[in-house]
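Hello Y.,

Per our agreement to keep a running log of every chain we model this quarter, I'm adding this entry. I've kept the format consistent with earlier entries: sequence first, then predicted structure.
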Amino acid sequence: MRSNAKTAALNIPLIAVTAGEPAGIGPDLCVQLARRRLPARLVVVADRELLKSRARHLGIPVKLTDFSPAAGARPGALSVLHVPLERPAAAGRLDPANSRYVLRTLEAAADGCRDGAFDAMVTAPLQKSAINDAGIAFTGHTEFLAERTGTKHVVMMLVGGGMRVALATTHLALKDVPRTITRDGLENCLRVLRHDLIARFAIPRPRIIVAGLNPHAGESGFLGREEAETIAPVLEKLRLEGFDLTGPLPADTLFQPQRLRGCDCVLAMYHDQGLPVLKYASFGTGVNVTLGLPIIRTSVDHGTALDLAGTGRGEVGSLIEAIKLAAALAAGSRKRKRRTN
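Predicted structure for the entry above:
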């Protein structure tokens, strides 16, 4: 019986959790995971002493063990894949010297997923400004993981509040958005989005609402030509291939409940067009998913919260939901592989 229980435990997904910015809330949230029963085995990719120090500071009893692929989950314990800090980290105080450490944790998790050691990765928040201050060109997890895995087209999607909202562009200055939205780019985005909604989320015929770029979706060209010249032609082309697409619609009215009931995902043209609505509905429990990657990656819906780091006031809800979604996606992936073998 004991052997069967151990085998069953090892059959649940193994997920790598990166602790993110060492001065931020990520290490706090990671040590809280030791108290939770989750549908996955976890390995936290971080500096061991950082986790030990933060747990002690927060008064959280936790046993840290070295990661072993054959070990099952143990209540009150965290499995750790140790990646050493460049310099000791203090809660709330950024140090660009630790930027290389942050990127090494991402590399370890991503490479482990790509090589089959992990079933998925979940990322705690990092501080892009600190990495750039270290002289490293970095725009975000999404772009970094695309480059690391050699993926040409990726899509950022958030899940929460009963919605899925994907983005045609991600971390760009607003002035750069219009020229970045091209026919080829939008077509690739929609192909990745539809493919992963089918393959990862098991939605046989995804219904996607596409937002316009301009107010009133361009107002018949009086407020912009992007809808008529870029977005609408792409949607028409893909509809002829069987895509179920609605739009382009004005962003200020497409999030009405009656519209959302008839769709599986909204595609917004830029970051702050779609995400404020979703985060209003789900902040603290929303999940960021990177579509198009050959690996499964989810993340929290919030930032590093430097002002909360080390205070014990950080909420672990979004990280928990990110782990649950990663576990569900990984379990679905395993089932599909078994069916095809």
